[in-house]
Amino acid sequence: MRILLSAILPVLLLSSCYSYRIFPAAYRNYAYTGIKKKAYVINPELSKELKILEKGRVFELTPDSLDKSALQIRLNPLKHNLACGQPVLVSLVTLGQLPVLLPDRYQYSFDEINGRDTIQRKYELKIASRYWFWDMFAFNKKFQQKAGQTLLAEYYNN
């Protein structure tokens, strides 16, 4: 029984007790009130990246590729660099009672194509994974939503 519990507990703590945090804190409630450009995504097969763009509402996305007033967006694959996982050991030892932040690095990039002009946009999305026992009851576990919010703030603040 003790061996089974020691094998299940780490899996339970690492699979359900997490949430995502946006940094800096000002980006968490950022809202853009200006006019957004219309855009058409050339490569919607990058579904994870497209979902982040949709959730962020950076552009007014249109399904019409013939719309001359719309920018064309070419998405690039999301790059994910993991943070050091050693702090998770502290959380495991304390049975998840001590919250731990892992600041992973996400590189989101796309090209804005307007006629013959192409602008490369690259953003580092500052999102940390928090592991804490009480996050088992949290509902903010949607990475695309948090990444989209960060992308919106980065796009209009830079």
What would you note in describing this structure?
This protein has 158 residues and is α+β, with helices and mostly antiparallel strands. It has one domain (31-157): Double Stranded RNA Binding Domain, CATH 3.30.160. The chain has helices at residues 2-16, 47-56, 87-93, 143-157; strands spanning 18-22, 38-41, 60-61, 71-75, 79-81, 100-102, 105-114, 117-131. Strands 1, 2, 3, 4, 5, 6, 7 and 8 form an 8-stranded mixed sheet that branches. It starts with a helix and ends with a helix. The model has no long low-confidence stretch (mean pLDDT 86).
Q: Whole-Å distance between the termini?
A: 55 Å
Count of discrete alpha- or pi-helical segments spanning 4 or more residues: 4
What general outline do the C-alpha atoms trace? elongated
Give the total of domains: 1
Secondary-structure class: alpha+beta
Q: pLDDT under 50 segments (min length 5)?
A: none
Average the pLDDT over all residues and give the rounded result: 86
Number of distinct beta strands: 8
